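Dissemination and training. As part of the outreach component of the grant, students in the summer workshop were shown how a complex can be specified as a set of sequence lines and then modelled as a single object. The example used during the hands-on session is reproduced here so that future cohorts can follow it. Participants entered these lines:
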Amino acid sequence: MASDSANGRRETTVSDVAAAAKVSKATAARALGDYGAVSDAVRDRVLAAAEQLGYRPNALAKTMSTGKSHTIGIVVGDIENPFFAQATRGVSDVAKAAGFDLLLSNSDEEVDAEDSAIAVLLAKRVDGLIVAPASSVDTQSLQSAIATGRPLVLFDRAAEGVDVDTVVADNRAGASRLAELLLAAGHRRIAFVSTIGHPAEYRAGDRLASSSVGDRVAGFVASLQEAGVPEPERFVRLNARRDGVDTIVRELLGDGATAIVASDSLVAQAAFRTIRDLGLVIPHDVSLVAFDDADWTSLSAPAITVMSQPIHEIGAEAARLLVRRMAGHGGPAETTVLPQRLIERESIAPPRPPVR
Amino acid sequence: MASDSANGRRETTVSDVAAAAKVSKATAARALGDYGAVSDAVRDRVLAAAEQLGYRPNALAKTMSTGKSHTIGIVVGDIENPFFAQATRGVSDVAKAAGFDLLLSNSDEEVDAEDSAIAVLLAKRVDGLIVAPASSVDTQSLQSAIATGRPLVLFDRAAEGVDVDTVVADNRAGASRLAELLLAAGHRRIAFVSTIGHPAEYRAGDRLASSSVGDRVAGFVASLQEAGVPEPERFVRLNARRDGVDTIVRELLGDGATAIVASDSLVAQAAFRTIRDLGLVIPHDVSLVAFDDADWTSLSAPAITVMSQPIHEIGAEAARLLVRRMAGHGGPAETTVLPQRLIERESIAPPRPPVR
DNA sequence: TTGAAAGCGCTAACAC
DNA sequence: GTGTTAGCGCTTTCAA
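and obtained this result:
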């Protein structure tokens, strides 16, 4: 039975409290829920009875009748990834302040998993949804979420044709800046490495599964092009999750790349290890820069020059936008672009002339 | 009204589907919920109608009548902390496999926050609870959670008098091993630093707010004692969150400590920075070891010797135990102690004779 | 200010 | 195999 807990005890309900306080269910509910009008005497009586019976409100029943669950659903790529952990904390902080709890799901960057995660969250009647879309192109599940009328906010990447509030960082500018730094040091054979899946070799103008990686590549390529580097996309390598960062970095270096831009700190970490295992030294033999100011980047030797993102704020802002929508704000969809910040350290040096 | 979504549309319900398929509500529910007996013809008709109307089940209503929410509540210290992020992933993986979702809360290691988090989770009728207790001593909220009859599993630290399944690492042994390593290198003035709050200076036998830190300190002190070090608790420093790791490390070094055991990777990171800022070099001037194989510990120069914990597994095991309880398993409370693993790197060297 | 009764969307007896 | 009916615990008219 629904009313019996596992060990046979029954949860005490408003009715129980009402009976104990000798008032109607409605009155007890008013006192307990602190709404409507109740005389002080009655309120005290009800509250005392509740206390005495160990009454615990059933938020689900409340949701059933009010339609509000005070819960927001969040789907991230992987909560173990520091980026998502930090963003989630940002979301959590503003959500809690606004009276919402978090129902969390990992998509592992798979559209199918994202799909079912969203379906479940919707079934559990979250008041709103915050998601880092697994794909900026395949937006089925996002569309169906929108169709339910519940507010949805995207973060970290945008999704094509999905007209909702979105919070991203200025990836294009950040990537350009990083490329310029490397170009200024004299590099011409600069690689860009990302784990993102892509059906073929990258070619100028390709639409990537993640808009943020797409923006980074675009900014990167544009800067090289502007500097007159021929075939600027020659050293762009995607699918690093599938093929392995280690393998890719070895190939890149074998092909003569003199500098590497890592699209995130996880890629940078793997690249750092490979370079070290190869017996090469950064930045003397290879220059390495990355996105995200992960803690290790300032502790490693050498410390890594990075493009820092306001990760916590990305999550917090997404939550703020969502809270506003849930409160009924009806303006047009808004895209917030947060600035990235360059932190120069010691991982860039002029390219070493090729040994021949 | 509960039935109207924000934009005025109504969610389609079992009744709507039933009407469209021209069957009773019960039959439609059976077809939709895939239980009871329904003829193929009718099932097809119902499913088609559902599809056509865009029916989305209301999991809350289901919970109301079945009593099962298929949701587990988890409260961690801080999801941004890599330890909790990894453990949460472990929980999430087995929870998902067993058909449960995660309702997440941060306690910030505050008993009050933990208290209200648990109350909310209980109000939302989670089927079970996984918590890393903010205090191993002040166990009010845990007791009240148990009182509801819903299964509770603790992880990372145990709680006094709270007789529930618990998953911890073998902190005492790990700390002993670390201390022995340092002793073997010739150190006698070894410090132990933790962020845990404590009302006074640490004295042998003190009960700490976190049982795991308590175990570590105990193992640490025991090893020093066994080695004949006088006043083994002399260099034990707690309250590092309040007082600042930086300040404490400077004091410790000023007092002649020659080695430091960091109780977690965050403390280690701060200590590493302070030591570097002081112009000292590890391990020549100071030896440093820590708990948790954080990514930076193998990337820093020098790489840090650490006592690694099976973090993901701690979370996964906690979830497994909980799933078993939720399935009705009624045996006595179980405490799983997972082994820690030493990873020797380059941060230990003999103490430098004091300059005088 | 209080109470009676209907309703939220679903499941579960119990008949037929 | 299908339908009727009564809940689950709460909020919300509507009367009194």
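Chain A has three domains: 2-57, 71-169+311-339, 171-309. Students were then asked to discuss how this feature might be tested experimentally.
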